[in-house]
Amino acid sequence: MLRNTTEGFGWVSIGLHWLMALTIFGLFGLGLYMVELTYYDAWYRGSLDLHKSVGIVLALAWLARVLWKFSNPQPRPLGNKAWEHKVATLTHALLYLLMLGLFISGYLISTADGRSIEVFGLFNVPATLTGKGQEETAGQIHEILAWSLIGLVALHAGAAIKHHVFDKDRTLVRMLKAGNHPSDSL
User: What InterPro entries does its record include (predicted)?
Assistant: First the structure.
């Protein structure tokens, strides 16, 4: 099942979720590594180019995910705690907004000098906004947003584990296996 139902997520949603999650962790790790490199380190330029290219591809995946999300039914919330559903909805919205902020700030860092971003040698993303001090300001924002995203992802993962271990509901399982419904076994 490719599409979502009111009972569970489809393979497209599941695939985009996990692809983006793994990519975010990879970019975060690469970002931590990159900031320790000096201009003379052998992989200084390569790590920067990889980070930018993967970031652009992730932004495109984010856009696809947002479009898919709004063109599919959303599985109904499990449990009867309205406050948990509200917190989950807010958390998901913040995850999407933090990612968008990271894409924008990363773009502003990368294009501050007026050069476009080359994406794996396949296409270029042109520089459209440049300004004095842009790279430093955008860099500080990018770092704060990256740490905020990782913190919120940890909260998100902790909530999924809580639902699985303590509440014994299908919240986590629905993001691992497409087409689940209440009659499926855990």
Answer: Cyt_b561_bac/Ni-Hgenase, Cytochrome_b561_oxidase, Di-haem_cyt_TM
